[in-house]
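Lay summary. Proteins are chains of building blocks that fold into shapes, and those shapes determine what they do. In this project we predict the shape from the chain. Here is one chain we studied, written as its sequence of building blocks.
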Amino acid sequence: MTGIGVSAARAALLPTIAFGIALVAAPGRRELAVHLFLLAVLAIALLAALVAIGVAVPSRASAFDRTFRHLAPSGGEAPAALLKVQREVTMARETAFDVHYRLRSLLRPIAGGLLLARFGIDLDRSPERARETVGAEAWELLRPDRSPPADRAAPGITVDQLDRVVSELEELRWS
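And here is the predicted shape, written in a compact code that computers can read:
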């Protein structure tokens, strides 16, 4: 018998003892005791089967897990806000959904604040002036009338595109 089988047999010992005590203590409730005993033993058998399958099937990291593997801190713990930004940027590199709903939601307040502070332009109220001030690549991502992606699973933003967007936003900061 394998280690899992031995553990399951040991775990089934408690319901067996409880079953024997229930038969002696309440002989009129024998049918209920049998049902409860079977339920407990079958639950243990199911758990043992799941553990055996988990051991037998090699675990593979999903694409989601692989995406975040490099984000694990390698010493001191990074601030929570930085980890959140890293997660959102990493996810935006994977799907168009995350570009629109995560990255865009992260960058719009930054761009809006820069436009308002440096140029007195409201990103939503003066989109024409904002488009003239912000670079073309950043505008495509930030524009108020940007539609959600038709294919949410489409590829996300590339590192080069993201670099250009960030550069355009940095130019606003120093203007």
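What the prediction tells us: The chain has two domains: 3-56, 78-174.
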